[in-house]
Amino acid sequence: MATDSDRACLQRLKEMDAALARMERELPDDVRSLGAEARRKVAEQLDCLAAGGIDEARLSEVMREISGMMDALTARLLLAPWDGPRRTGFKS
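Request: output the structure for the sequence above.
Response:
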């Protein structure tokens, strides 16, 4: 049975993955690879947690890395010029 800590980590990793998936749609081309790398790291940790072979020290280190990547992506999104919502043609 998973511990409370394992469940909390699983929940946090799922939240990170969902946030990264939402960001991915809006990321400028110059940081798309960073977003993909962050999602890859989240997926690796989810796999490790599911297999029961997670090292808490390594998990803490990776979580800090992912958080830093997410901070950088968020900052880049905030600094990217935005022309408003995407326009679609008039519907007839």
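The chain has a mean pLDDT of 84.
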